[in-house]
Recover the amino acids of this structure.
């Protein structure tokens, strides 16, 4: 527990895996959590893209969400370096914009693979260590597109609704192991992925550093204060 706030978990020495840490929201989360004193295992398709330097408190590892073996190999390497895993941030994601009458079903498969199956596999791979930690944490960056359909890509929405389902199931089934599970669900965020269809100027979208703030807040919450989902609006809308 943190000395100044006994309600918060102390970041010192807690080991957090972050997928897609090379850019966008993942890079912002990595920067924020490092500053807070966590130990980081950063996964990216091209680890050379990761800005955070390798050190005693930070490792890089290849992670390709399209490779079913990649989660297991990355989790094993994390345990080899740090001896534990306390948290998993499922951040890597892809979006392809097409509707019901255009597009390619292969893009739908790719979104399901990266946005749903890879997080599922990562949870499985990290689970023994998250259980052993007694206060394991799983945060998945889903989307408002996974809570209601407003505009944009049906396939992306399908994948993010499924990611919400994954988060919900993990929250329920892993609760008794002390693992707390949260879906962080932003609207438009100022990254390469920001949907142009939102009509927002980049400066009016939510900034990736703000998502990182939310992740940092959720990650430090004690076992008796769990948040199931954090919807984050850049513009007003009533939510279900
Ligand atoms: N930006 C938004 O408006 C918004 C809104 C709601 C939710 N989100 C969600 O937020 C998360 C982060 O997105 P972002 O905004 O930071 O987008 P981004 O800048 O496009 O970054 C996407 C990240 O996912 C990684 N990734 C993509 N395919 C991968 C694969 N096959 N294997 C491993 N990593 C892969 C990318 O790695 P590479 O660098 O190797 O491509 C990159 O790190 C995603 O889950 C996204 O759906 C974004």
């Amino acid at each position: 527990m943190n000395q100044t706030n006994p309600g918060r978990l102390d970041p010192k020495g807690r080991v957090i895996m972050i997928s897609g840490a090379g850019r966008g929201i993942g890079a912002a989360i990595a920067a924020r959590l490092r500053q807070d004193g966590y130990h980081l295992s950063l996964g990216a398709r091209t680890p050379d893209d990761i800005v955070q330097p390798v050190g005693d408190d930070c490792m890089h590892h290849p992670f390709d969400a399209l490779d079913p073996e990649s989660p297991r190999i990355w989790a094993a390497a994390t345990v080899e370096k740090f001896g534990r895993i306390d948290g998993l941030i499922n951040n890597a994601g892809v979006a392809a914009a097409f509707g019901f009458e255009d597009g390619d079903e292969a893009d739908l498969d790719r979104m399901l693979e990266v946005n749903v199956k890879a997080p599922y596999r990562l949870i499985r791979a990290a689970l023994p260590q998250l259980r052993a930690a007694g206060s394991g944490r799983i945060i998945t960056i889903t989307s408002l597109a996974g809570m209601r359909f407003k505009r944009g890509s049906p396939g992306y929405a399908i994948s993010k609704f499924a990611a919400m389902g994954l988060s919900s199931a993990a929250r329920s089934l892993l609760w008794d192991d002390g693992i707390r599970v949260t879906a962080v669900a932003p609207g438009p965020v100022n990254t390469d992925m920001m949907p142009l269809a939102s009509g927002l100027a980049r400066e009016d979208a939510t900034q990736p550093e703000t998502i990182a703030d939310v992740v940092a807040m959720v990650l430090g919450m004690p076992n008796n204060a769990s948040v199931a989902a954090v919807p984050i609006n850049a513009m007003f809308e009533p939510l279900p």
Residues 146 and 161 are 4 Å apart (CA to CA). The helical segments are 24-36, 70-82, 105-133, 154-173, 208-219.
